[in-house]
Amino acid sequence: MILNQNSDFIFGFEAKMTNPNGDPDQENKPRMDYETSTVLVSDARRKRDIRDFLKRKGYPIFVDTLADKKVPMDKMFESIRDQWLNDEDNFTKLLNEETILQEKWNQLVDGQNGNFKELYEKMSKDKKKKSLFVDFNNSFMTAIIKKSLIDIRLFGSAMAVEGITRTFTGPVQISWGYSLHPVELVKSNTITSIMNDDASTFGKKHKLYYALITHYGTMNKYSAKLTGMTEQDREIFRKALIQGIMNNQTDSKQGQSPLFYLEIIYAKDFDGYIGDLRRFIQVHYNEEKSIREIHHLTIDFSKLSSVIEEMKKNGYIDNVVGWFHPYVDDSIFRHMPEYVSLDLWQPIANKVEG
């Protein structure tokens, strides 16, 4: 079932003796807001973790590499497009399932028979059929996304590809993350040897001591209709957000652990959002001591709980769901809103094509 309710969500994770998001313009040091001494993490970093994790689970990913090499978007489109056109059984099945796509294909080829790939390439060179070709391509890409490309169903894409004019706005939007308190960078950076093909050089490992970092995000029901994001996709996204960061255990990323996920699901006829949920969360700590552990913080949700209760009374909220790390002392979380508990450690089934 296509997603039919808007939602706000907040995701919190801790970063301990690690580099949550290196800045290539600053020697790969942690991204920082030096005015507030808070650490920053881009939305691209979060999406990369999710894409990499889902790829490992067997899901085809559009924003990816080909043969371990970065390729432009049009090359990736060609690769995925040709997989469908070269598989006559799958392409025939797709046309049979997508009535409008079949009508556009029939208009494009106008009774000509032959190999799907050869017909497609022939039509692409026919200037008289340019409009029909672009129209078919838009519907073809939409059908492929709905059928197999979960990362575009979730995050969308501008599709800077010749022959495609449709833009796919992602139903899931994730803001940049930032720490809810000032952080300290490790002053003594470890020097490490970096091996290249024919030589070795020396580099530095940049880390911070400790940070509680949160991302805010939204899910939009209208954009979901355009990309085909389903309720099942939402469940997969939640788990991939938690499990993706756990599976990114590289040398620089080790030390990051998800702490909580909270999602406010609005009533079906409600079109608004509360907005950035981090505005309603207060973090308390001793300003005279360094923050090195989660226990040095207290996270107060009382303002958020009040807002949620008020919205519920107005009938705007359908449900609140959440996950908290089961082995973190929950006494640090104060005045939590009522929520339905989710098991986001539950494994995501491996994707089986067919």
From TrEMBL:
Taxonomic superkingdom: Bacteria
Biological process according to GO: maintenance of CRISPR repeat elements
InterPro entries attached to this UniProt entry: Cas7_Csh2/Csh2 (IPR006482)
Pfam families: Cas_Cas7
Name of this chain's protein: CRISPR-associated protein Csh2
